[in-house]
Specification:
Elements: H1 3-20, H2 24-40, H3 42-49, H4 55-66, H5 72-83, H6 90-105, E1 107-114, H7 120-134, E2 137-144, E3 151-156, E4 159-164, H8 165-177
Parallel strand pairs: 1-2
Antiparallel strand pairs: 1-3, 3-4
Amino acid sequence: MSVSIVASRYAKSLIELAKEKNVLEAVFEDMKLFKDTADKNRGLMLALQNPVVRHEKKLAILKSLFADRVNPVSFSIFTIITKKNRESILDAVAEEFILAYNQFKGIQKATVVSSVELTAELRTQLNNIVASATGKTIELEEKVDANLIGGYILRVNDRQIDASLRSRLNELKLQLAD
């Protein structure tokens, strides 16, 4: 079975348990913490993915890092996954949990890359455009790329709107070359 399917099943079980125990927000924050820690600490994921490292040692690592910092419901999934010898998918479980949480809450992630920092007015306009198109609450991630020269690139799921000056100049260059 693929990692994403297994991770999705664990994430769905965890979200149901968290809703049942009324700790959904705390578990969401814990999963963001774990994902952030795993992304920033390559050594942690290498240790969790290493078949030579014993499962007891992996659980001890997780316990020392997270036992005092996360909700017991969150730590229970770490324990269960470790006992099932699937520590290598913990980051995928956290990612799937975050996706399931956002879907449950009706939150849509969008990324905008612009040549300069967005003004409050432009940020509001982009939020409204994406919210009206998706019917969901928008969580806008902003990035600055001076290479765009001007304009923006807006990504929502697998859709992209490229309204950057760089892409328009490239189009013009292709038209002039023909």
